[in-house]
Amino acid sequence: MTEASHIPQQLTACPDCDLLLQTTQDHHRMEGRCPRCKAVLWHSAKHTDTISFAAAISGLILFYPAITLPILKFSMVGQNGSNSLIGGIYRMWIEQEKMLAILILLCSLIAPLMHLLLTAVVCLSIRLNHFPPHFPQWLKYKCWMQSWSMLEVYAMGIIVAYVKMMHDGDVSVSGGTYCLCALLLCVILSSQYFYEEQAWQHWEQNKPA
Ligand SMILES: [Zn+2]
């Protein structure tokens, strides 16, 4: 049995310019780049699956405090207030901004959570060398959820809100912001170090007969 490799087998399409390339396992270089547009086709860095798995588990641990702890605390004309991610979604819902609430719920909460969960499950299957029949679906849903996960847009919104409000009152970042930043880092690391091609190779070599 051949080991799963970072290098795509036989044929691969460049993700940026769609150039079809022939690859072989003799291409033992640190990095493979498209000859036409120089896009990175593969890295041969080791332990990437461990980094992706650790980032996904850390992200899952951080998820609950990131969505429930207050993000910004503000004091304005004698009034104090704070709000969390989940509290903001609830507030939008009761103020009849239901479409916006659903969109934020999907892109800032459900999609990142499912993305981390499926990354952890796929990485765990690979680590345990146990591939249930649902493995391909998990891998496909993981990639689908990754494209819907837009936690960074929410983080950008926090920065804009902070800058806008800092002149009108006393605004300070709270525990939720730190958890959210750490969660965002975990989401980025778990995506950056996850090699879909390698996961498919593992499945191809170990799928149940
Ligand atoms: Zn290319």
Automatic annotation (TrEMBL):
This is Paraquat-inducible protein A. Keywords: Membrane, Transmembrane, Transmembrane helix. It comes from the Bacteria. It holds the Pfam family PqiA. The chain crosses the membrane at residues 51-72, 100-127, 147-163, 175-195. Signal peptide: none annotated. It comes from Zhongshania aquimaris. InterPro entries: PqiA-like.
